[in-house]
Every structure is written in structure tokens, then in C-alpha cells.
Amino acid sequence: MARIASGQVVVQAQAILPGMSGLSCVPRQCNVGCMSTVAEIKAAISQLTLEERAEVARCLHEWEDDAWDKQMQQDLAAGKLDSLLAKVDEDIGHGKLRDMP
After folding, report:
1. Percent of the chain scored above 70 by pLDDT?
2. pTM higher than 0.85 for the full model?
3. Most buried by CB count within 10 Å: which residue of 23, 34, 58, 92?
4. Greatest CA span in the chain, whole angstroms?
5. Residue 53 — pLDDT band, cuts 50, 70, 90?
6. Measured between alpha carbons, how far is 38 from 44 in angstroms, rounded to an integer?
């Protein structure tokens, strides 16, 4: 594993994860190699400050939302939701719509 300063890690992380521009450069050394497993990523995250962990969590959540939104748009454009939307319209037309509790 290469030994690099945490500031370099932050710069590299910001290049890979542009939404993480708020990461701070904490003066410490860390060993960084190619993280290719979930266990390695979890171990690296455990070395972050609480603020840095929160930033990683926000970034991952945004990715999840983006992927979900993109899939929904693709499915809608492809007509995959047409029957579901027709059923909803039918239920509304028959007065089957209820207010949420």
C-alpha cells in the first residue's frame, strides 16, 4: 500500500466524488491502496471524522436518489408504468382514493 497524506486522499476523493467538495484536509497520515471490496471501503470510512462520514453519506444518498429518479423516468418513457397509472386513474374515477391517515 502507498503511504500518502490525507490531503491527497481528499483531493483524490473530490475528483472521484464531486459532491464531496466539503471534505476537510485533516493533518494525518493514512495507508491507501486500491479499495475494491466493501470491507476495505468500510474500514476506510471508519477512519473519517464524523463530519467526513456525514459528507460521504450525503453523497451516497444523492447517488441512490439519482439512480432511482433516472430509472423511474426511463420506465415512464418506455410505457412500463402505463397500466399502473391507468389503474390509479380508474380508482380515482370510482372514488376509491382516500386521504392518508
Report:
1. 67
2. no
3. 23
4. 67
5. very high
6. 10
Q: All 3 cell numbers of residue 48?
A: 473519517
What CA–CA distance (Å, rounded) separates 25 from 52?
Answer: 10
In total, the chain counts a number of residues equal to: 101
Q: What secondary structure, in 3-state letters, does the chain show?
A: CEEEEHHHHHHHHHHHCHHHCCCCCCCCEEEECCCCCHHHHHHHHHCCCHHHHHHHHHHHHHHHHHHHHHHHHHHHHCCCCHHHHHHHHHHHHCCCCCCCC
Q: Who wins on pLDDT, 33 or 83?
A: 83
26 residue type, one letter: V
Cell 464531486 belongs to: 18
